[in-house]
Amino acid sequence: MPEGQGAPASPPAARSAPGRASAGPAACPSPRLPAAGSAACAACVASPESPAPRRGAVRASVPQKLAEVLSSQYGLVVFVAGLLLLLAWAVHASAVGKSDLLCFLTALMLLQLLWMLWYVGRSAAQRRLIRPKDTHAGARWLRGSITLFAAITIILGCLKIGYFVGFSECLSATEGVFPVTHAVHTLLQVYFLWGHAKDVIQSFKTLERFGVIHSVFTNLLLWTNGVLNESKHQLNEHKERLITLGFGNITIVLDDHTPPCNCSPPTFCSAISQGIYYLYPFNIEYQILASTMLYVLWKNIGRKVDSQQHQNIQFRFPGVMAGSVLGLTVLAATIGIVVVYLIQIGRSKTKSELALIMFYVYAIALLMLMGAAGLFGIWIYRIDEKSLDESRNPARKLDADLLVGTASGSWLISWGSILAILCAEARPPYTWFNLPYSILVIAEKYIQNLFIIESIHREPEKLSEDIRTLRVVTVCNGDAIPLASSCLKSGAVATDVASLGSEIPHVANGNMHLREGCGREAEEGSREGTPSPACRPRFLQGHAKRRVLRNIAAFLFLCNISLWIPPAFGCRPEYDNGLEEIVFGFEPWIIVVNLAMPFSIFYRMHAAASLFEVYCKI
């Protein structure tokens, strides 16, 4: 019968199903299938007379879109104003001091505190209402990580208060108010994220958009402030060490913001000053993690959440001994390399060159291992016929965008090093190790991004991987529903099939049958260029394949934490190499490194967080 024509429904049927169209295909009987069969036949019961979206609904969405645009522009205005204040303080602009910058940041934090208190109070008053949640946002391990970083941030605030007390004679009151406000802001923000990171806000949406976006850019400005303070400290140490490598033609002018008065006792103040800069990396990670979680909350405002529940992600340790042992070995070796590097660099020209060579050789070997592990994981995915989850997910999209965006920072530095080596007139021997190191940094991050992004987009495992293709083909005329499975060779596979059959007993009544199609599937797989399950190695089938992928994820997770440590704690050969500063000039290269290094550091921590999620999902 041609599409769109069918027998009219009888009056009793019409009364019993008022939501059904008055006419439909006669070949589609009432479905007796499970969810898979019903979804396959959904097109048959769709009516061409289905109503179009109401004009009122379209008009109602217009103010919300305008609110989203206005709130984002408000956040950008606040962020640009804060960046200009930070820049003015960094270059010692006249009439702009540190107290002005701290007053602006304190006002932003107080405004965010008022909004969070209002939101928490309103949520407590309406706690009996059922609210939609985004189960992908604010994972428990992510909230645990931000709690750890927040605790160290509060310790950093205590050290800043001690620093203010020591130099209270010549410091403004804002330098004492700021760390106190920041500590209170950190405590309440962590509480807010633990309780409301998964919220999908459906009321007061316009007001909430401005409140959340204000929180996002407040945290970004606090992150920028921490990055700037830490970069100034690293740059001063670099200028002091640079002369030992023989680059005496570079003028060393320390950019010091030390108060003009004495601290009592001097030993106490010196210890506090050094401790502050060792805690800055944790504060920097806390602020950027908080801003990303708040951004996901902002994207979820007014969103319609899918009714399908997200599968719980659980941490499973058994079966990853190889990846964990190798990764922990890398972590211990990295800590040793960093300690030796920081001790040797700047002592003399010979010791500095040996420290650079040691770092480059170790990093080259580690990057080659990481690249090989990533390529092996991608190869496993290539031979696996598993569908990808393409559903709308703001948290997952943000993860992928951050991986690619922050990787560009280290790519910029690496390409600058490659050009410097190729264009330099004189090349000291230790600089040649920088060439393979820079190339491997680019390649390894490219490979790792591919592995992580494909891993977070893959459907979670449900049945044994020995049942590779389980296809339910619905024929609307009700003749037959063939069920094709792959090779059934073990008792475990038969059990899986039996359990599947027990879930759909009304389908397996003659309209569904199993057939062993090893030969045909192998032939089809070879024709498509993808090996069939029967043709794969044993270690790439079922639980063995998942064990291999978990070991790869665990190894890469620990390696990324290992590579986060050197630049975060002062081991930066991009500064100490010296060749790039000769080719590009001291100030241009320092600007490039100071702009790109924060993104490179954040990439390693974000990649580690994403790999932990991949590990729990496999």
Enumerate the spans where pLDDT stays under 50 for 5 or more consecutive residues: 1-58, 463-530
Counted by DSSP, the helix tally is 19
Residues in helix, %:
55-70%
Q: Indicate the proportion of strand residues.
A: under 5%
Broad structural category: mainly alpha
The residue-averaged pLDDT reads 75
General shape? globular
| Strands side by side in the biggest sheet | 1-2-3
Distance between the termini: 47 Å
Profile the largest sheet: 3 strands, mixed
Overall number of structural domains: 2
Instruction: Report Rg.
Output: 30 Å
Protein name: Proton channel OTOP1
Membrane topology: Multi-pass membrane protein
Main location: membrane
Organism: Neomonachus schauinslandi
What can you tell me about this protein's structure?
This protein has 19 helices and three strands. Strands 1-2-3 form a three-stranded mixed sheet. The protein has two domains: 63-304, no CATH class; 319-459 and 542-617, no CATH class. By secondary structure, it is an all-alpha fold.
Keywords:
618 residues, mainly alpha, 2 domains, three-stranded mixed sheet, 19 helices, 3 strands, hydrogen ion transport
Furnish the topology, listing elements before pairings:
Layout: H1 11-16, H2 35-40, H3 42-45, H4 55-90, H5 98-125, H6 140-166, H7 174-196, H8 205-242, H9 266-299, H10 321-344, H11 349-382, H12 394-423, H13 434-457, E1 471-472, E2 483-485, H14 491-503, E3 514-516, H15 518-528, H16 542-568, H17 573-576, H18 579-584, H19 586-617
Parallel strand pairs: 2-3
Antiparallel strand pairs: 1-2
GO biological process, one term: inner ear morphogenesis
GO molecular function, one term: proton channel activity
Region (Disordered): 1-33
